[in-house]
Every structure is written in C-alpha cells, then in structure tokens.
Give the backbone structure.
Amino acid sequence: MIQLFMKENATNRQRLTVRDDRGQIIYFIEGRWGRKNDLISLYKINGQHLMSLKQQKLAPLATFDLMENGEKVGFMRKHPGLFGLRDSYFTIHPHQWVVTGDFEDLYFTVHRDNHFIMECEKGFKDGNAIYVLKIKQEEDAPLSALISTVFDHYSRKKDEEMTQEKTTTEDYNLGLLNNFQSEPLQVSYFAHPPSKDKTKTR
C-alpha cells in the first residue's frame, strides 16, 4: 500500500502536484476538462509525459479517452445509477476498474472484480484542499492520480456553490467580505477528513 498527496498549485489553478509520503513531488498534472477535446495530462517530475485523459463527450454522462504517446489506449465513462445521476459511477477500460463513492465530498474507491485498487479522500489544511490517495499497487499510482482530477470537478463545484451561498449571506448580514490568505500546505500536516461519515473500503 502506498500513499500519495495531491494539492493544487497556488499560482496555477490548472496544475496539481502529487507527492509521496516523504513530501517529494513525483508527478504533476496539468490541464482542464469540461469541454470537448479538453485534455488533462500526467507528467513525471522530470517532465516526461505518462498519460492523458481527453474529453470526448460532455456532461452529464461524460466520456474520456485514455491516451499514451498520442494513441488511445482505453476510455473512462460515467454511468447513471439506480437513482439517476445522484448515485452515478464510472468505469475505466480495459482496466475493468469501477469507481464508486461520494463525488461531491470527493470520497471514492476503485475496485476491479471486487478487488480493492485505491481510495481517494479530500480534506483541508488551513483552508487549502488536499487529496489523499491510498493505492494498493504502486503500478496503479499514475492512473489513480490522473482520474482523481476528474472527480475533483464535482467536489469543486459543490465548494464553489457553498462559498457563493456563504458570501451572499455574509454580504447581507455584515455588508463586507473577508479574504483570507493561507500558508502553504505542508504534507506532514495533511488535512482532517471530511466530517461526513462514510463507509471505507480498505
């Protein structure tokens, strides 16, 4: 089992750094998604490109091509659940990964034929979001990190809606807005888990 920590770059919202449990940067992820042909790419710290996700179909049932060396090697697809989009899930092929969880709070697990692959959970430190990945096999780390950026969209959207609601309330009650600047996050002090109780798969 290995553990990785993902954090958004403070000066570039389209870049995430991925660190190991010693605090060393091992990958960085750049790009965005939300429109057709948008691209999210994973690189080693030396700049070597490893893989990308290219959006092919827009939400609400988005699909992505998994690319390596400019060639399609797989795809990721969103599926509605029994109650529609509220309990949707994702599949990744040809890996036969199934991704389920609470994408708004950004807690999800990945399994293949009921075998645990990885777990991702979002937390906070000094107001900064951090994503903690627990991955059973090291060879699954690059793809695990890359797909986590897609699911971050749902969590970020919820955070923005909550922030907008809070800002509106504060503006109405106080007639002012307060801006806070946080210190850079240190991996050794990673975030508290979300307050919402969840059943975890280890």
